[in-house]
# Entry
Amino acid sequence: MKQLKGRKAAKRPPPPEPDGDTQARILDAAHAVFIRRGTTGARMQEIAGEAGVNPALLHYYFRNKEQLSESVFRRAAAQLLPRVIEVMASDAALENKVARVVALELEHLSRAPYLPGYIISELHYHPDRVRQLLATVAGVTPEDVRPKVLPKLGRQLAAAARAGTLRRITADQFLVNLLSLCIFPFAARPMIMALVGLDQHGFERFIARRRDELADFFLRALRP
Amino acid sequence: MKQLKGRKAAKRPPPPEPDGDTQARILDAAHAVFIRRGTTGARMQEIAGEAGVNPALLHYYFRNKEQLSESVFRRAAAQLLPRVIEVMASDAALENKVARVVALELEHLSRAPYLPGYIISELHYHPDRVRQLLATVAGVTPEDVRPKVLPKLGRQLAAAARAGTLRRITADQFLVNLLSLCIFPFAARPMIMALVGLDQHGFERFIARRRDELADFFLRALRP
DNA sequence: GTCTATATGTTGATAGAC
DNA sequence: GTCTATCAACATATAGAC
# Structure
């Protein structure tokens, strides 16, 4: 989009901030505002201001607020689960999977700590968004991995239980426990910071320690 | 409020639905609507309709939307943490505390599954609400228990570590792990239902199984 | 593609009768 | 305490000039 017209390119003054397409600037600004205010609390005008563009342009590129918010949610949701699902669907050993998921999620969420709160809020108030969340997971591999990852994980867990390597646990409890321990601290970040008495840096150190301990904690819970 | 006037009580026709004070009816309706739509998405008119009351009465009892939403949040927040803090601050043994918190939370949240999503959303979009959340915790005992519960728990954990009963873990990681495993499944309920492929009843069974396994899972992670 | 101006519809809130 | 009527303040969205 926004390719130059050629004959008039030298004459027309450049836009205020030429960094990136207008559309991309809008999407980035919308991302920030929707995460800060929520879908219903976000104001188109604030997004336009943050993007440094005229408010009418939001409707030019994205038809209305609904479609804009959907684009933002899609992009945000694509950051939360796909990589975890990918690891879970792989052929790696269970211990390896746990370690990789913990490292992956804690490192990524440290850079986007507001993501879980935003996504949980969206799914809570807009149940239809669930489909868009699943769509991001479906794209991880050529085929839809979702119906596969749980049965596969289940077989892996059952085999480990028979071999005496791990205690018996169902695949869904296994997955939810792991996701809980990784994601909840970020989703409930304000609550935890207040409860434990942490400031910004304290929380970061708290997460840093977690990176070292969490996989071990989790795997010990499954020792026979 | 709304005590009868005595001399005119027999003459005036009773209000449409005499069950409960008007103020309480409004608060209950507001509770439902705020949890369903979020603070910014909630409409005063919808609350009035759900309460079966004239919209103007919302402003008569609660001055404005802000104060009404604050009353609702206070009441909701009071259901999430106080009992957990109370157990944690008690003199019970660690194994006992874990078992009681798991039983307490899973049983209560099964009846109010939308509570965690609402509270996390509120804290995410209205950081000032954190103070109101802490206020609910402070009221658990005559004095403010918050500054006490973590150090006490820490000493308990350190003693257990010295005695060789439990592996060493800090009080904050202990508390956050426990809360994560209890609360996250409800906070991320729509996501989990979609990911695992559960309907309403499937989710309830999922939680029921969790009630039996979770305390054991948690304590095994801390075995030396 | 970008801007100005404006239409259109809500929403929270109040005044004042009953 | 409860109701009707109404206001002022946005917020989304579009029309049309440039």
